[in-house]
Amino acid sequence: MNQLLRQDLNQVDAFLQEVKDYSVAFLSKIDALPVKSASAEFERLELPRKGMGARSTLLQFNERYGQHLAGNSGARNWGFVTGGATVPAIAGDWLTAVFDMNAADKDTAPLQIETETIAMLRQLFGLPEAFSGCFVTGATMANFTGLAIARQWLGRQLGVDVAQEGMAALANTRIISCIPHSSTVKSLAMLGFGRNAMLKLSSLPDRESIDIAVLEDYLKKHQGEPLIVVASAGTVNTVDFDDLAAIARLKKEYGFWLHIDAAFGAFAACVPEYRHLLNGWDAADSITIDAHKWLNVPYDAAMIFTRHTQLQLDTFKNAGAAYLGDPAKDFKYSNYTPENSRRLRALPAWYSLMAYGAEGYADIVNNNIELARQLGELIRENDAFHLLAPVRLCVVCFTLNVADEEKQAATDVLIKALDDSGKVMMTPTVYQGVPAIRAAFVNWRTTENDLALVWKEMKQQTAALTVK
Ligand SMILES: *Cc1c(COP(=O)(O)O)cnc(C)c1O
């Protein structure tokens, strides 16, 4: 064995203690760090001829990057829809690396852990047992996987096994949606449908929710054509939901494939007051739910749920590799997901679900919604700002009360000022043609103190902005 490998093996205890201390030091100051990573340029290191061993590498890392680490996972990252990581989720992620077991094999503990975690998540979201699920790397891959199964279904309607014979029979297929997430369109690019296959139907006035009458009209005109409908349970700008119950009724009549992107909107199921937003979602054929957002586990985790395991197997099976066994006989997640060798990415979720249970998650979700509503109220009552949509769940979408032609520049300046303050991160957007700002609350750490601190900063920065 290489001498450095031998040395580190002998010092595993001392070294991991040091890494633990380093981790704790980081986590204990996370909310004091600037939220947004500052842009940084480094002279690139060369591959060392002789390595430096584990301990010196930690020191070298800290010297090089320690000052550039941001509190991305802290209480005031309100950009995009960014979750944090609960303490047990961090432990689960660390242990996933410690065990480094492949969650691809049959009859193993990793398989059991994933199956058990999926069952717990089904309970958390109130999904029927008819849905099976598996972990993938993020909601983009969950959308990809759901739409890959949908593609297989489309082919079957036309008497073609797309996984075997390819896409030829599906040329000119339309995928219907209203405000799809960009990752859905990206998935169409990856799946061979092409981005142009997406047909966006109109929304209700002042909403990001599909106009059901327009959808029904389209379905009537295309009766008998196999179709995929992608519904949103939570748009990123205003967390609007398509009327899933109405879409479920149309599905009964017109028989399309229904994929629901519920990346973070699924968490409405955790709180009785908001569960109605998801009424009808159990009629879906496939559902995307992210884990590294509102479930608050580290990056690299989302779930795809579906009722169509046979189509899923047809799509993702490793066929004809004797050493991998018979996909039809041996249940292995690797025959149901894009990845073959698989990180045990269910484990952080398992830890966090066991640690906090349904009540803990209801508290996280409730608290985030409450804070979003409070910020929405503050904005609505303040003349400097203009709330662009009601706060439906966890996102506040607003702009500045300046002349239309100044809105772009003013929102840009405010976002930059907030970034530079280090105290909070929000993201720019355009909502119904209006340059706007979004603040998303999905982190378990966020409290009313954070809201007070940010509101003060927002008012100060906005006052400075109008003086200029
Ligand atoms: C974040 C998000 C996605 C993509 O998720 P990743 O985890 O970034 O791959 C898809 N759909 C919606 C609605 C999202 O909010």
From TrEMBL:
Entry keyword DNA-binding: no
Source superkingdom: Bacteria
Keywords: Decarboxylase, Lyase, Pyridoxal phosphate
Gene3D superfamilies linked to this entry: Aspartate Aminotransferase, domain 1 (3.90.1150.10), Type I PLP-dependent aspartate aminotransferase-like (Major domain) (3.40.640.10)
InterPro entries to which the protein is assigned, alphabetical: Aromatic_deC (IPR010977), PyrdxlP-dep_de-COase (IPR002129), PyrdxlP-dep_Trfase (IPR015424), PyrdxlP-dep_Trfase_major (IPR015421), PyrdxlP-dep_Trfase_small (IPR015422), Pyridoxal-P_BS (IPR021115)
Necessary cofactors: pyridoxal 5'-phosphate
Family: Belongs to the group II decarboxylase family.
PANTHER family (UniProt xref): GROUP II PYRIDOXAL-5-PHOSPHATE DECARBOXYLASE, MIP05841P
Name of protein: Pyridoxal-dependent decarboxylase
